[in-house]
From TrEMBL:
N-terminal signal peptide: 1-16
Similarity-based family: Belongs to the serpin family.
Coiled coil: none
Protein source organism: Drosophila ananassae (Fruit fly)
PANTHER family membership: GH10112P-RELATED, SERINE PROTEASE INHIBITOR, SERPIN
Name of the protein this chain belongs to: Serpin domain-containing protein
Gene Ontology cellular component terms for the protein in this record: extracellular space
Database matches in InterPro entries: Serpin_CS (IPR023795), Serpin_dom (IPR023796), Serpin_fam (IPR000215), Serpin_sf (IPR036186), Serpin_sf_1 (IPR042178), Serpin_sf_2 (IPR042185)
Gene3D superfamilies in the cross-refs: Alpha-1-antitrypsin, domain 1 (2.30.39.10), Antithrombin, subunit I, domain 2 (3.30.497.10)
GO MF annotation list: serine-type endopeptidase inhibitor activity
Keyword match Transcription regulation: no
Length: 384
């Protein structure tokens, strides 16, 4: 197997139709993963490698299967698989399509150039191949990511496995002063019996800067600028609190609706903000088969009628698993940045105007995005 380190060029998507992954699919994926995986700190999606994974499936599909993918991940989009290490925000990752041993057409390999690796794997002899794939995922993304491919994903019935992984590296435009970091209460999602989940976690604090803020119908939004571009932000959508009518205690946190998060940006205005933000460090893995893809109206990828005739003339080809993993390490300097990097702390404005308090002490949605595309998104529901 060839080791290849690919830097993805982050594309500007040109219209809402072609932004379907950035706009709508995250809400479907998060809705499932948050409800189905309460034991983890939260969900996480690195969009570029997942986008390329869908592109690979599109290029190899035909018939009704291709129609399902049409206008989402179609061949009309320009392909720029590599980016300079100096592009910002930096994004890198790994993606491959594993298929059972078969005759693969030359046109299929050509179609996947710059989109994905294409490899054959005997799914009945797993241990060595599983270890090798996971080592490559960690090598080409981050040592933090989960071992995304597990033996339980493979069997004699396995036909095709899509794997994607990615991380984004970016600095804060205004780094947090480490001396302002301390332990603060965080109210996690309530348990199955309605019990509170409260923990003390390291929390950063920053005040004296003007950020874009909005009070939403179902929560609050803050846009924190990131280094390297005036148009790239870290978005936080803070959940609202539902209180008991009997004793006024919180009984539920409601995440803001974020189907079209680009429209939310327009709602904000500049405010002087006192922000408290938890430090986060976790990885997340998910298999979009079988529950998520049907919600995205992509049943034709999974059933016996799947058409991957552009890959091979072999019958009975269908997608068995679609695995994705990502990791986040958020601290005073930025997200997934080298710990020995030196960034000069910015002095806050000596401004005595009233502050808007934005204390992130309960579940929230977050994203790295510009005004056209999402690079990374997730939800943090609280420490394990």
């Amino acid at each position: 197997m060839i080791y290849k380190l690919a830097y993805f060029l982050l594309l500007t998507l040109v219209n809402a139709q072609n932004e379907s992954l950035s706009l709508y699919e995250p809400s479907i994926i998060h809705e499932y993963t948050v409800k189905g995986h309460q034991g983890v700190p939260g969900t996480l999606i690195c969009h570029r490698p997942l986008h390329f994974a869908f592109r690979a499936l599109y290029h190899l599909s035909g018939g009704e299967t291709r129609k399902d993918l049409e206008n989402r991940w179609n061949s009309k989009w320009p392909v720029h698989a590599y980016m300079s290490a100096f592009e910002w925000p930096k994004s890198w990752g790994f993606r491959t399509l594993l298929v059972k041993p078969m005759e693969i057409t030359d046109s299929a390999r050509e179609a996947l150039e710059n989109v994905s690796e294409l490899e054959t794997m005997d799914f009945t002899k797993t241990q060595e191949s599983v270890s090798e794939i996971n080592e490559r995922v960690q090598l080409l993304t981050s040592p933090m990511v989960d071992k995304v491919l597990k033996k339980r994903n493979l069997s004699q019935k396995t036909k095709m496995v899509s794997i994607s992984a990615g991380v984004v590296e970016v600095y804060w435009k205004y780094p947090f002063a480490s001396e302002n970091t301390g332990l603060e209460l965080f109210n996690g999602h309530f348990g199955e019996q309605g019990e509170e989940r409260v923990a003390m976690i390291p929390t950063m604090r920053q005040y004296g800067f003007n950020y874009t803020y909005a009070q939403l119908d179902d929560g609050e939004m803050l846009l924190m600028p990131l280094a390297g571009s005036d148009d790239v932000f870290f978005m936080i959508l803070l959940s609202s609190v539902v209180y008991s009518s009997q004793d006024s205690k919180p009984v539920k946190f409601v995440m803001p609706k974020y189907g079209n998060i680009f429209d939310l940006i327009k709602k904000g205005s500049s405010r002087l903000v006192d922000v408290k933000l938890p430090k986060m460090k976790y990885s997340y893995s998910v298999d979009l088969v079988p529950k998520v893809l049907p919600k995205m109206s992509l049943n034709n990828l999974l059933n016996e009628d799947a058409d991957f005739g552009n890959l091979s003339s072999t019958d009975d080809l269908r997608l068995s698993s679609m695995l994705h993993t990502s990791a986040i390490d958020l601290d005073e300097r930025g997200i997934n940045v080298a710990k020995n990097s030196f960034i000069l702390n910015q002095d806050p404005n000596n401004n005595y105007e009233p502050f808007t308090e934005f204390h992130v002490n309960r579940p929230f949605f977050f994203a790295i995005l510009d005004r056209h595309q999402v690079f990374l998104s997730g939800e943090f529901t609280g420490p394990q």
